[in-house]
């Protein structure tokens, strides 16, 4: 029996709690303009992900993507070299990374067009969608989830969304929903490498198998409803039903993985770092587990987010919380302390790059096949400026060793880099969301 009744009279609003039902299965619907009785023309436009042509699959090791994202920016004068091109001298933050020069590109003078919402732009960081940060519209899919959606089906975990503390993340689904982050390294390690007992594995497989046929059961109702709504709502329903189908595919894969043994690693299960002030040490420990996840091909797409906490890093010379330091107001003492914290974060990131470089596969290093991005939604956290975002790109087989310097007053569009990364993974798109498709300079060979 169906809860949906077709043949509505023109102008009648669709009940807000419309549910498609069949064979005891209920599927709640997303918001539709028809639920307010509005016409399709009056409905708010929903951002859409780029069209996807046939995927180009190359030979060799699989390509991976890891993003380290920061909520509180980085001091540009300490990060970006003064020289552009290949002849740059290491900045204060990059001095410890000189051995990685040939695997590193610095981008300056870049930002997301139209994003001007301070801390809230964290929601736009990997989507490049201004609506993600201003609260007046719907977000779209983040770069990591776009890659995982189309390429993540070969691994036990299509993607990992991690945090140094708390559940917030810059990772968003097709429908604009934030994906909560895993912030416990103990739990992450267990999910990746600790074998479930046989009873738990059977129960997991049964749960996955039970939920696979929701769309098949409600398909007739879904088709009838699609004929009764306007073009805008029909598009929303198509996206929603496509998302349900994707979920079912993932559940089917989950059933397969529930019956498969997890990889064995030499690392002992780590102890959780419970002191919130030790966020840099936690970043390093989480990075160790991420390296193992990539090395065992448990996943290929990872985001590790460090939110804007005010914890005080236990570093010599630091006596103030990170968030307070980031709002330095150009005070010398705060700038000095902030530089110590940020330099430690960059050094830890460099250690992660080196760890990938030490792993060999098919005659290449794991770093060669892994694009590693470090960035923040804030170029200047002190005045909440989203322009001049800090951007470091490493690995992935690009032609590195350069500083791509752009105009700090007229920034180049960072979404062009997202397009480049997507195409490096074989997706062959014309542009990612927010990429104007005109200005050059962020394409890396």
From TrEMBL:
<dbReference type="InterPro" id="IPR011447">
    <property type="entry name" value="DUF1552"/>
</dbReference>
<protein>
    <recommendedName>
        <fullName>DUF1552 domain-containing protein</fullName>
    </recommendedName>
</protein>
<feature type="region of interest" description="Disordered">
    <location>
        <begin position="39"/>
        <end position="60"/>
    </location>
</feature>
<dbReference type="Pfam" id="PF07586">
    <property type="entry name" value="HXXSHH"/>
</dbReference>
<dbReference type="InterPro" id="IPR006311">
    <property type="entry name" value="TAT_signal"/>
</dbReference>
<feature type="compositionally biased region" description="Low complexity">
    <location>
        <begin position="39"/>
        <end position="52"/>
    </location>
</feature>
């Amino acid at each position: 029996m169906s809860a949906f009744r077709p043949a509505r009279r023109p102008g009648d609003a669709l009940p807000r709690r419309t549910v498609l039902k069949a064979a005891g299965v209920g599927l709640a619907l997303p918001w539709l303009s028809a639920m307010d009785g509005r016409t399709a023309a009056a409905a708010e436009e929903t951002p859409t992900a780029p069209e996807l042509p046939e995927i180009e699959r190359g030979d060799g090791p699989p390509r991976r993507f890891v993003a380290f994202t920061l909520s509180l920016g980085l001091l540009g004068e300490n990060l970006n070299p003064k020289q552009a091109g290949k002849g740059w001298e290491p900045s204060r933050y990059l001095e410890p990374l000189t051995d990685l020069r040939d695997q590193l590109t610095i981008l300056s003078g870049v930002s997301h067009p139209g994003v001007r919402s301070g801390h809230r732009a964290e929601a736009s960081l990997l989507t490049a969608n201004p609506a993600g940060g201003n609260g007046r519209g719907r977000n779209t899919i983040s770069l990591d989830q776009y890659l995982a959606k189309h390429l993540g089906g070969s691994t036990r975990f299509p993607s990992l969304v991690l945090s140094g503390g708390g559940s917030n993340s810059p990772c968003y689904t097709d429908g604009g929903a934030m994906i909560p982050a895993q912030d416990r390294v103990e739990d992450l390690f267990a999910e990746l490498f600790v074998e479930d007992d046989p009873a738990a594995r059977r129960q997991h497989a049964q749960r996955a198998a039970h939920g696979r046929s929701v769309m098949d059961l409600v398909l007739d109702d879904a088709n009838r409803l699609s004929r009764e709504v306007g073009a805008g709502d029909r598009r929303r329903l198509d996206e929603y039903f496509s998302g349900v189908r994707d979920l079912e595919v993932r559940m089917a894969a989950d059933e397969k993985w529930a019956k498969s043994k997890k990889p064995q690693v030499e690392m002992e299960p780590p102890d959780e770092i419970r002191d919130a002030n030790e966020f840099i040490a936690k970043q390093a420990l989480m990075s160790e587990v991420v390296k193992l996840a990539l090395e065992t091909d448990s996943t290929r797409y990872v985001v590790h987010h460090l939110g804007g906490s005010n914890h005080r890093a236990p570093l010599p010379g630091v006596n103030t919380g990170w968030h307070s330091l980031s709002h330095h107001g150009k005070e010398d003492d705060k700038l000095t302390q902030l530089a110590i914290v940020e330099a430690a974060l960059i050094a830890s990131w460099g250690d992660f790059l080196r760890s990938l470089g030490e792993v060999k596969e098919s005659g290449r290093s794991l770093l060669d096949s892994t694009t590693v991005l470090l960035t923040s939604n804030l170029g200047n956290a002190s005045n909440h400026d989203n322009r001049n975002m800090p951007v470091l790109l490493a690995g992935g087989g690009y032609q590195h060793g350069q500083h791509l310097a752009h105009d700090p007053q007229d920034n180049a569009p960072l979404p062009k880099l997202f397009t480049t990364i997507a195409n490096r993974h074989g997706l062959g798109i014309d542009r990612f969301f927010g990429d104007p498709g005109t200005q050059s300079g962020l394409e890396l060979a």
